[in-house]
Amino acid sequence: MTDIRFYHLQKQNLDQALPLILEKAYSAGYKSVVRMESTSEIERMSKHLWVYKQQAFLPHGSKKDGLAEDQPIWITDQNENPNSANTLILTQGQIAEDIESYDLCCEMLDGHSEEQISSARSRWKEYQEAGHEVTYWHQNENGAWEKKA
What we know:
The protein is of the alpha/beta class. Helix content is about 30%, strand content about 25%. The protein has a seven-stranded mixed beta sheet with strand order 3-2-4-5-1-6-7, with helices on both faces. The model has no long low-confidence stretch (mean pLDDT about 95).
């Protein structure tokens, strides 16, 4: 079954939190797929990942770059896994039809979007009923992630 983690973004926004999660996955040798809501958001995030921190390197690509099978991080707005990733990161309210094909799924929830939070509550129940391991991660006062449920 898939390990599903809900990350409730309250202290950081997606641009701050996503690179940190991708760094952990990449340094552990995992390939990732990041699903975003649109082509413009994919392009914006791709540019951001190249410059978000001077000492960091997160090799990634998208349909625009091609060579999906060679990309350790693939950013898309499609329900696809062209780089044979084992980690799926859902952002901006995206959902997955193929969650069982991943070892780990991280849902990044905008803490200021009631729509995303409400939708996530429904998926939480569905995931549990399907037998997935589901956990909830909340940021403490210092911005560090703590497992709450």
